[in-house]
Description:
By secondary structure, the chain is mainly β. It has one helix at residues 219-222, and strands spanning 15-23, 27-36, 58-67, 70-81, 89-90, 94-103, 109-125, 128-144, 150-163, 166-179, 189-197, 233-241.
Amino acid sequence: GPRYGDIDQGDLLNGFVEVGQTWGRGWTAGAGFGRRQMAFGVERLISSYDWLNSPQTFDGGYGWLGRLHNRVDLFYVRPVNVLAYETNENDEDIDLWGIHWSNRTSTCVTLEAYFIGFQESNAQYGFVTGAEDRYTFGARFGGVIPDTRLDYDLEGAYQFGDFDGDPIRAWFLSFELGWKPPSRRFDPRIAIGFDYASGDGGEDDEKLGTFNPLYGDGHQYLGFADVIGRPNVVGVHGTFTMSPAK
């Protein structure tokens, strides 16, 4: 049968009001409100799921402030649930907010840091349903190694808070190293990578160790293993890509 998001008979994907301003010395700022897709970094924690029939959207407000290579984004939103034959509505049981900083000092290096708050009144882990109050802080470092044909991507995050009265202690780490052969045709790239995200140790440890990937896109990193998502996963992968034509 159809999975969640496979069917959505006519709905509003993006609809928002946004104002912005730029001025001297590279400053820019703005704010918006409404329904829109969101994606940060390489989308391990917040993604718009563009490969789905019905991409993920959010209702709420957001703003940004930037100067030259630096940008800070703030948001307070609720995820929109896909209702196959009815009008999509945001989930009133979930609040998602955060701040995201990025710095692209050159074409070779990207730095990111973020803090994300997540509250859900009816979260479920195993056979337990309760209130979840989770906070995620993390960072990403990626780019091209100068004077080589190597590129890299490293990201990690730690989560804390509480679920149904028990403390949350969870984390994840992802790393990928790529190499482009000296070929002018097809732009080939070979890469190896590693993904780890914590799982729970059982009922006896009196804490929740399951990592919550929030609204990240696991598909492009874990393939069909994203049926279970990033929680409690240990994965090693290798990829080969090429572009036969522009």
